[in-house]
Amino acid sequence: MAAFWLKLTLRRLKSKYGGTSRQHAAPDAVQLRARRSPRMIALGVLLTVMGGLIAAFLYTNSTTSQSVLVMSRNVQRGEVITAGDLVITTVGAIPGVVSTPAEKINEIVDKTALVDLPQGSLIGVNSVGSPVVPEGTAQVGLRLGAGRVPMYPMPAGAKVLLVEIADENKPGRTFKATLVSAPKDLGDGVTLLVDVRVDQKQAPDIAALSAHDKLALVRQAD
Length: 222
Description:
Blueprint: H1 2-18, H2 38-64, E1 66-71, E2 86-91, H3 105-108, E3 112-113, E4 128-129, E5 137-144, E6 159-164, E7 174-179, E8 184-185, E9 192-199, H4 203-211, E10 215-219
Antiparallel strand pairs: 1-2, 3-4, 5-9, 6-7, 6-10, 7-9, 8-9
């Protein structure tokens, strides 16, 4: 009988204190939730935005770049452009700037510079073309010998005076003119060629005097 009560008591004690409650059982693993830094979040967003902008810039630049014509040397207004005056370069899109595509080089060669074109400049739509003779004027080509033209460089657009070289007993006439192109050496070291714009009524006399080597050119103040 005593043995029975002993077993019963041990069973009750084991039931009360021997088992492990599910409520007090230690978890197998404790997962800690990491806290995200606001600075790191902002930095990540900034890097993402910058990456997108750079990618967009590179894409736009690659899709809008083109080969254009650029002046390889200084060409003054009134001069005829040659193939040696041009080079080809690649540029991106420039807002407000008009350029000439490289494939149009044949349309530019042998045309006249309507404005001064410095070395390295782009060629605009209205920069070259055929020279326009204003109404009431005429363009005359002169062939002048040594001592008949100033040695100092004269650009197109300069105001000049054409003086007739007359006989000793006859005063020479004078004609107002504007240089259409800068004087060019013919290659013999003596003769210069130059185009001038003059009054239409005086053009025949000026051409005749030039043909007989009876003209000298004088530079005037602009």
